[in-house]
């Protein structure tokens, strides 16, 4: 391996607090009619003033604690001045000099990716152009709904060593965000946005390229793809002995390439200075402790607990803990069934066929006690596994109890021994050659005889009994 | 003489007449000469006619900040102080003239017209709350609200011979005050008596959920009005007798000291060498905040749009509506905040600000009050001052109270020629009632004189 990428991420997370960062407007603005969740404060009306949300701080502190950061008691807001129509005040309120938290890490498959800082800030509005691109647009409109939605900006150290690892980092981060309940983490909806810095080290010649910033990647897949593209592009430039420009590039979905947006030399001077409208926010150690105590079990802890407590494989536990909602539902089902392994099997093979891990399991028609009932029907030999699967589907769709379905449909296991014996005798008469072969040692043919009975009974026969009787008839 | 013109809030509270009608009558008759009002409100409910500086937003009533760019701006909400006035039976009869966005000391930088001093109509009323001070001094209204960032209440009050009070920073909500320099701005009363100033403070002060810089403190501003302050110990900086202070003002200040001593007050001289840095400090911090606060007025987000072919041209033309002083400060602030100069200017100014604050607080541990003339000069002639630096130096005595967030009042004390001279009393943080009480202690012997009663 002659070349190695060095990647750092800058991630903006929309916090799903009840109100916006500095006013009492709702922060849940996704897909609302433009300019319907706004007030004098978030639109920067002359005379209006920002007042920071407490919940934004709580969410920020939870996030910082989950990412093992040093949380600061003394924080302050600053103004980042820049001129853009989607920014009503002409500046963004952010934390520049005294951020909420610093020096954390996120563990990814045993490796620590260091977090440089986490700070709180407000989101800007959205521009809507009358045509595809701004240059062709006859007119542009501003939707201010997003103005003032609270953001946590997470900046990593350049510890990420492959595009795939960048993607994994983001997936893990999203899982944590969802576990904490501080953000939906939906990249497609803009609740999680990521810019990446990448440079490449030529290990043979021991030189490192300039840093390139990549933007506009609105899915985990595109982060990986864009970084792969950039890695290749920078690598080939290094190979040709060319100078890699320090610049900002945007991922272009249509060409699956990155395109130069601006060179870093024309960087903005944001003229940061302390926000005079908001006094410093001082949160004592005790208050921070109180907030952190509310922290739920995090993905890694839950995974380990599931493996131990329920004796599950890593694979099973990982799937079952992929979301809090799924994990909670699993635990409630196990509480009823007292059979973690069997419950896990049904979750992995059946339940997740009809649901995805982020669904709301509380509102499902199938309830934990249905699992218990279904398992009992199987153990009592009242239904076969195959039928149980059909019943499961029906319970899932209708919410009827499994025994009710069995009763209604007249599904019952055929356990009548004389009936099974007659069927088997008939099958053996029609397949004398196979009976002969079995007796000569081809024991595998047992499956054939049982299978035939199951076929004729449409799976309703008690497989255990069929086996027993067949063995008896074949003289085993 | 119209009896209404001398009425105080206290008088109006006792009376039964249509004072709002009276006020509007006087405004109609006299404001053609004074030019105190940008907008007169003919229909307003409430009993006590008051004027509000036109950088404090009023729902449905045009609020211009005396700027072309906000000439047609109708705010969608009331400032907290306006809400409080309305709730307490005040009638807003008009919005008063100011230097554009409150930047200036003569109301000459209003984009519309110059307000004239009721004492001498060839002279300025002071600024930036010149309209409010002139409206009170000419008897057009019973009282007015102004805003004070570096002396903008006290200096025009001094020039017009009335009372002007800047409260401790954080006592009065700034919600609805169009920001000039947010860390220095404070709304306060301009009145005919200190009792009225204290009364108005009780109405407008208080913690506001919408302004994070307001403090939660219960204060009765009227509680020390009758107190005997003859045992007070006050200090004045020796720098008061330094360069740039008019002889007439110096003389009057000496009289003021003598007067206080005769009343039993102990007056001591102190050395305040940092005083001379306060103007420089102010003119770095305030423009820095201005450059940020005013960037929204670009014709796209806010303000009158001057439509041009392209976006950039539209921006440039729209911004050109701002006046020369506003542009000067935006440029200054943009420069001092830029990455390359931040440490050398803004950061250093913040340090000096803390130094000046500490020094003042130390003095006020030892003395009840610090006294100075409010302004080194009396009202100057319209158009007389051209050099911005000369302008800036006029704020030397008023700026320290803003830098340190302290309460300070200007009260009239005698004349230089036929122009009123104001004295400033500065107190400890949250000692607002004490400052008002001391001012009242003086006022008992030296009441406000109106222009039409003075011997010329």
Describe the protein's architecture and organization.
The complex is a heterodimer of chains A (about 475) and B (about 450). Chain A is built from 15 helices and 17 strands. With about 475 residues, chain A is α+β, with helices and mostly antiparallel strands. In chain A, the strands form 4 sheets. In chain A, strands 1, 2, 6, 7, 10, 11, 12, 13, 14 and 15 form a 10-stranded mixed β-sheet that branches. A 3-stranded antiparallel β-sheet of chain A has the order 5-4-16, with no helix packed on it. In chain A, a hairpin with a 4-residue loop joins strand 11 (about 190-200) and strand 12. In chain A, helix 5 crosses helix 6, helix 12 crosses helix 15 (about 465-475) and helix 14 packs across helix 15 (about 465-475). Chain A starts with a strand and ends with a helix. Chain B starts with 8 loop residues before the first helix and ends in a 13-residue tail after the last helix. In chain B, helix 8 (about 275-295) packs across helix 10 (about 325-335) and helix 8 (about 275-295) crosses helix 11. In chain B, the strands form 2 sheets. Chain B has an 11-stranded mixed β-sheet, sandwiched between helices. A two-stranded antiparallel sheet of chain B has the order 4-5. In chain B, a hairpin with a 2-residue loop joins strand 12 and strand 13. Chain B contains 14 helices and 13 strands. Chain B has about 450 residues and is of the alpha/beta class. The model of chain B has no long low-confidence stretch (mean pLDDT about 95). The radius of gyration of chain B is 20 Å and the shape is globular. Chain A: InterPro entries: Asn/Gln-tRNA_amidoTrfase_suB/E, Asn/Gln-tRNA_Trfase_suB/E_cat, Asn/Gln_amidotransferase, Asn/Gln_tRNA_amidoTrase-B-like, GatB, GatB_C_1, GatB_Yqey_C_2, Gln-tRNA_amidoTrfase_suB_CS. Chain A: This is Aspartyl/glutamyl-tRNA(Asn/Gln) amidotransferase subunit B.
